[in-house]
C-alpha cells in the first residue's frame, strides 16, 4: 500500500476493564493529513472526559479521502453514551478503508518448557475467587488512608533480595515493547509498567510492577485483581507459546510485582510495524504459534479475553508467546464437566466478537474461549494485511437508535444502539453474505490487495473462526485440525528442519550470509 495514497491517523482507543463506555461525537469528514493526538474527547469535544489510567492505549487506522466512520470510544466516569458520526460510505467493502490497529498494553517475557495440560484445580480456582483468607495474612496498610501503599508481611519476598535491582534497559529494548514511557520502562499499560532486573547470576528478568491502588478502588478488589492475574499466569506457565511467570514479590517501594522470564524480541505489533512485508508462511507460522498457546490455555480451562498483537511477545529468534493475563478468567476447573460463562466485558473493542456487543448488563454472559478464537482471527488479519477485518463487529441498521430493553446505560448493547452510523456496514454485509452465499463466498476474503490472496483452505478456517454465532464458531482444536494449519511448518526459534529459517524479528536479518536463504 503506497504511503502517498494513505495517511496513518493516530487515534486513541482502549483496552478496557468492566466499566461503562462513552462515544465521542466525530466530525463528518476526516482530513487525511490530520494527526490526532491524545484523548478523543479532547480532540472532538469542548469538555473532555477524564482519561482513566485503566484505559490508556492507542489505535491506528489507515485512511484516504474516502475514509469510513468507525466506532470509537473513550473512558467515562458515568454511565452515559453519545452518538457517533454519520457514515457516508456506500454499503460495500473497501480495502482502502480497512483499518490497521494499535493498542498499548504489552510485555516481553519467555518460556520454553511444556507441561501436561490439566485444568486449573478447584482449590486454585477458589483461591482466585476468594482472597479474603490471605488478604489480612499477607498485607496491611501503613496508615488508614485508602490511597496509601500496601506493606508486606515478613514472609513476602523482596524483589531486591531475591532477584536483584532494577536495571536501565538498552535503547533498543525500551522501544520494542508498546507503551514505553521513560528510560526505566520497556513497556507500560493500564495497570502496570514493565521493567528489568538483573539477578546476581547475571540473568535478566522482566518485572511487571503493578500501579498502586487508586483511591476509588477497594483494597480487597485490588488484591483480588492482582492475585487473579498472578495465579492464572503462574498456572499456565510452562508452554513454549505462553510467557513463564516465576514469582510474586514486593519491590523497595512496597509495590507488588510479578517476575517473569524476559525475551528481547519485542511485541507482535512492533514487529508488524517494522516488518510490514513479512512473507506469508512466516506470518502463518506466528499465527499457528498463537493458536498452540491458546489451545494450552483453553485445555486448562482459561479464557484470555484480550488476544491482540500487543499482548503477543517474541523471543529474539521469533518464538511467539501469549502475555498479559490481567482480564483472563477461569471458565472450567478440573472437577467441572461444563464450561461456564464470563460475565464482564473487557479487552479491546476492535477484537471483540459480535456477542459482546449484545451484552446489556453485567448479568449477561458470554463464552470467553469463543471470544479468544474470534480475536485470534482478527489478529491474523493484522499479521497478514496490517488491517482489521471490521471496525466493530456489529451493525444495527438503525443509526442513533434507542437502547434495547434492559440495557444499562454505557453497556455494549446501549453503545451499539446509539451509534449514529449504525455500526460497521462492512460487518453487516459480511453477515448478510455469509447467510445467503455461504461462509467462504463473502467479499471479506478478497478485500485486501496486498500480495498473495487467501487460499480456499485459509478462507475455510478463518470463516470458522469468524462465525458470528459463538455456539457454532470453531474451537481452537478444530482450527488446529484444519487442512491449512496442518500444512504450516513451525520453526524452532526461527530454525526450520530443512536448514532454512524464518526471520520473524529484526534481530535476524536475511543479509546474514551464514544462514540459508530467507524462507518463502
Automatic annotation (TrEMBL):
Q: Detail which positions bind ATP.
A: 208
Query: What's an example GO BP annotation here?
Result: intracellular signal transduction
Specify the Protein kinase domain's residue ranges. Answer: 180-485
> Where along the sequence do coiled-coil regions lie?
none
Q: Which Gene3D superfamilies match?
A: Phosphorylase Kinase, domain 1, Transferase(Phosphotransferase) domain 1
InterPro entries xref list: Kinase-like_dom_sf, Prot_kinase_dom, Protein_kinase_ATP_BS, Ser/Thr_kinase_AS
Question: Which keywords belong to this entry?
Answer: ATP-binding, Nucleotide-binding
Where does this protein have compositionally biased stretches of type Polar residues?
A: 79-88, 95-118, 142-154
Q: Example GO molecular function term?
A: protein serine/threonine kinase activity
Q: Where is the composition biased (Low complexity)?
A: 56-71, 508-520
| Recorded GO CC terms | cytoplasm
Task: Enumerate the residue ranges of region (Disordered).
Answer: 1-34, 56-121, 135-162, 500-520
User: PANTHER family, from UniProt?
Assistant: MAP/MICROTUBULE AFFINITY-REGULATING KINASE (PTHR24346), MATERNAL EMBRYONIC LEUCINE ZIPPER KINASE (PTHR24346:SF30)
Provide the protein name.
Answer: Protein kinase domain-containing protein
For this protein's source organism, the top of the classification is: Eukaryota, Fungi, Fungi incertae sedis, Mucoromycota, Mucoromycotina
